[in-house]
Design a protein that fits this description.
Elements (H helix, E strand, L loop, with lengths): L1 E2 L6 E3 L6 E2 L3 E2 L1 H8 L41 E3 L2 E3 L9 E9 L20 E3 L7 E7 L4 E9 L7 E6 H7 L6 E8 L1 H6 L23 E10 L2 H14 L6 E6 L2 E9 L2 H15 L4 E6 L6
Parallel strand pairs: 7-11, 8-10
Antiparallel strand pairs: 1-4, 2-3, 5-6, 7-12, 8-11, 9-10, 9-12, 13-15, 13-16, 14-15
Length: about 300
């Protein structure tokens, strides 16, 4: 028999699914879990009538939330392995396998005490403080999402995060376990607005189509931040990690600091560069136009 210490949680991540241990597990069940667990039941999916437009579900919105001592942030043990949750301000950056859990656990309590909502942008992690926010990237297709960590798990070898059904849908991971990159958005970064602002601030004009206006150039807008410090950090990362950008500029207006790469003489060249930027480096960008000022500011 295995008793899960605080917090009660999943004891194994079977293939793309999971088995939750609530309280005491029978010894026979533990033997099955240790052997690798069964694969996800065919019934564990989105349900007969999933909400429409799940692929357009917005990311979790990072915000400052208190991380209390105890509860889901106390050390705990699962199948003889002890886990110690990280401090509230700890950064996390890792790669490994991701999986997801669906309607089998929909409505059941998570480690945070909140009911699990398979249609929300949430996830389970073994040691991130609860609650936390994390950016998860699927390197196979370049898709990224932001999720709120409110649960513990997964506990199978090599698995680093267990996603809600909708988060997995948006990442293109519903077919099974797949490699991902995970990075926690720390409280300090949330305060600074790092990598949490929309790609286009509300007052930006849409990218548009057709030829550029006279005297304008095409730029790739990679992100927009509320603080210059956060924008400058991404500017330096782009300059260090990418080799084929003409330049990277910081454009400040209306309380936003936009990170833009360019300039490009035509929209077609900018679109080609945007595709390379996402395929090779994982940065998503949209094409905007503005005056062809100095490429670096």
């Amino acid at each position: 028999m295995v008793a899960l210490q605080d917090p009660p949680d999943r004891s194994c991540e079977p293939g793309p699914g999971r088995a939750r241990a609530a309280g005491l597990c029978a010894a026979a069940a533990v033997a099955v879990l240790l052997a690798g667990c069964a694969s996800r039941p065919a019934t564990d999916g989105p349900g007969a009538r999933p909400p429409p437009g799940l692929e357009r579900t917005p990311d979790a919105e990072p915000r400052i939330e208190p991380v209390r001592a105890g509860g889901p942030n106390k050390p705990y043990e699962v199948l003889g392995q002890r886990y110690v949750p990280l401090p509230a301000d700890a950064p996390v950056s890792e790669t490994g396998l991701a999986s997801w859990y669906g309607r089998k656990f929909h409505g059941q309590p998570t480690s945070s005490g909140e009911p699990y909502d398979m249609y929300a942008m949430t996830a389970a992690h073994k040691t991130m403080p609860i609650p936390s926010y994390a950016r998860v990237r699927n390197p196979a297709n370049g898709r990224e999402v932001i999720v709120r960590i409110n649960d513990r798990g997964p506990f199978a070898q090599g698995r680093v995060i267990d996603l809600s059904y909708t988060a997995a849908l948006r990442l293109g991971l519903l077919n099974g376990v797949a490699p991902v990159e995970v990075r926690r958005i720390t409280p300090a970064e949330i305060r600074a607005g790092v990598r949490t602002a929309p790609l286009l601030p509300p007052d930006d004009p849409p990218p548009g189509e057709g030829p550029l206006a006279d005297g304008a150039a095409a730029w790739l807008q990679v992100a927009a931040f509320r603080t210059r410090e956060a924008a400058a950090g991404l500017q330096q990362r782009l300059l260090l990690e990418t080799a084929d950008l003409p330049g990277v500029a910081l454009v400040e207006s209306d309380g936003w600091v936009r990170v833009q790469a360019g300039p490009y003489p035509t929209r077609a060249e900018a679109l080609q560069a945007s595709d390379r930027l996402q395929r090779q480096y994982g940065f998503a960008a949209v094409v905007v136009q503005r005056g062809s000022a100095s490429p670096a500011q």
